Amino acid sequence: MFERYCFEHPQDETRRVNVGAVGYLVAGLAGSLYVLWKAGWAGFVAALLPHLFMMLALIAATGVTSLILPGTQQLAVLVIGVPALLVFQSIYMVRIISRTYTDRGWIVHSI
After folding, report:
1. Among 14, 53, 66, 106, which one is least packed by beta carbons within 10 Å?
2. Helix and strand tally (H, E) in the chain?
3. The pairing of beta strand 5-8 with beta strand 107-110
4. pLDDT digit string (tens) for 56-110?
């Protein structure tokens, strides 16, 4: 589920970009900013709107549901829902990074 990737430039083997376990953690927490750092502006543009939707979902899961749900159900949303949203965001952001590099013709190695 959390595959490590190594992206290698097709003509210059010294240019490599790695995404590992820490990358998934940062992608889950920072979203499109991590994509900007790893993949540049093309990836950032593709990741911005999904990242904003995910932030709205996190705000709804934490803030809005606290006004509607009782305490035990709110705890379940915080314990199950928020980590699930962050995992989904991290996987999606790493896929955007992977797609950005493959569109540029880089070689992708799954480690």
Report:
1. 14
2. 6, 3
3. antiparallel
4. 999 988 888 888 888 888 888 889 999 999 999 999 999 999 999 999 999 988 8
Residues 6+ apart with CB under 8 A from 18: 4, 5, 6, 7
- Whole-number percent of the chain with pLDDT over 90: 70
Query: What is the count of structural domains for the chain?
Result: 1
Rg, Å, the chain Cα set: 16
What token pair was written down for 50?
A: 């999904």
pLDDT of amino acid 12:
86
Range of the domain at 81: 5-110
Which residue is listed with tokens 């979203």?
31
